[in-house]
Amino acid sequence: MNQLICNDCGKKYEMTPTLWKCDCNGVLNLVKDTPQIDIAAWNHYPNSLWRYVETMPFSKGSKTWESVTMGEGQTPLIVLDPHEPNTYVKVDYMMPTLSFKDRGAAVLMTKAKELGVSKVIADSSGNAGTAIAAYAARCEIACDIYLSDETSPKKIAQIKAHGATVKEIRGTREDIAAAAQKAVDAENVFYASHVYNPYFFEGTKTYAYEIYEQIKGAPDALIIPVGNGTLLLGAYYGFKELFENGLIQKIPKIIAIQAKNCAPLVKAYQNAEESASPVTNTGTLAEGIAIAAPARSKQILEAVQDTNGTFIDIEEDEILNARSKLSEKGFYVEVTSAVNFAGYMKYKKEAKETIVIPLCGAGIKSK
Ligand SMILES: Cc1ncc(COP(=O)(O)O)c(C=O)c1O
Ligand SMILES: [Zn+2]
């Protein structure tokens, strides 16, 4: 039986299909030891993120994932430009639903299937909702997705195409999360939240495992966009596991990127605060990272500090400029994903530093 522990007060719980936060409102983490990594075992699995299934908290030999997977993971890692041979882009838009969220959704929905749930609810700025909807369809689990009525119409169309019920809410991203949480509690169903459910991070951690295999080690720095921190925390946990197994000598520095118009984490970092206070989103084109009150802010700030990383904020005009610069190199990303590249352009890298930039979502997803 899996156990969960509150990140704030340390209270422990047995995992159930409907428990999603602590009585004190804190976020829950999995109680688990660092997995013992057996690299030789990876080749026993298909060439997808499920190569690393033995590092995930599923019972040994569990095969549930086989009926959930759509081949996600093992995305290309390629040199950004022949003139910058130490800078790589990881093309995570080459996923079944065209964003990195498939990493977390595939693993989280595998857990939902294992728990025997018949319905899930999630809230999203778009991409996580699309990924959860697709994998819910794959597992034959009913799914409601709560999102803003201003979400990119292409993302909404994609979610509906997978048969999910879309609940369009007028309000802030926080209002939308609150509406979903109210429905979860009222209907007593599984909250397939990429923020609250720690299984999502068991999926996004494979981002680190793949980079480790692709460059045969760890890069010096990771540029990571951050709203709720699902890629950031996943990458951190993945590299930490590799480090604790003695497979790499250091955890890469995390350079976390936010849009200036909605940057609670940058503010907290600059003020040396333990967790982020909510800000007002004054409007950003980067819809995927417009999170004014990230629930895991304490963990995100700790992760960046632990790696000697830093935070960078990006102006709106820098986002569009970065998007065209990337397109000129052949990479067509959605607007939110251009923030990462803008962050890279602002980051004062040291000579010879090896850097990985994620290309999180496909260009055709944007308005
Ligand atoms: C394209 C894109 N990039 C980055 C992110 C940021 O992810 P997170 O909010 O988990 O930090 C998102 C989240 O929706 C996204 O859609
Ligand atoms: Zn608690």
Structure, explained:
One of its GO terms (biological process) is isoleucine biosynthetic process. Keywords: Lyase, Pyridoxal phosphate. It comes from Bacillus safensis. Residues 68-361 form the Tryptophan synthase beta chain-like PALP domain. One of its GO terms (molecular function) is threonine synthase activity. The chain has helices spanning 101-114, 127-139, 153-161, 173-187, 199-204, 206-215, 230-244, 264-270, 297-306, 316-328, 335-346, and strands spanning 3-6, 12-14, 28-30, 77-81, 84-90, 119-123, 142-148, 165-169, 190-191, 221-225, 253-259, 310-314, 355-358. It is built from eleven helices and 13 strands. The chain is of the alpha/beta class and 367 residues long. Helix content is 34%, strand content 17%. Helix 6 (206-215) crosses helix 7. The termini are far apart. The mean pLDDT is 97. Strand 7 (142-148), helix 3 (153-161) and strand 8 (165-169) form a beta-alpha-beta unit. The strands form three sheets. It has a six-stranded mixed beta sheet, sandwiched between helices. Strands 8-7-6-9 form a four-stranded parallel beta sheet, with helices on both faces. The relative contact order is 0.13. It has a domain at 77-100 and 199-365: Rossmann fold. The structure holds pyridoxal-5'-phosphate and zinc ion (ZN).
Would you spell out the secondary-structure blueprint of this structure?
Layout: E1 3-6, E2 12-14, E3 28-30, E4 77-81, E5 84-90, H1 101-114, E6 119-123, H2 127-139, E7 142-148, H3 153-161, E8 165-169, H4 173-187, E9 190-191, H5 199-204, H6 206-215, E10 221-225, H7 230-244, E11 253-259, H8 264-270, H9 297-306, E12 310-314, H10 316-328, H11 335-346, E13 355-358
Parallel strand pairs: 5-13, 6-7, 6-9, 7-8, 10-11, 10-13, 11-12
Antiparallel strand pairs: 1-2, 1-3, 4-5
Helix pairs in contact: 1-2, 2-3, 6-7, 10-11
The structure holds pyridoxal-5'-phosphate and zinc ion.
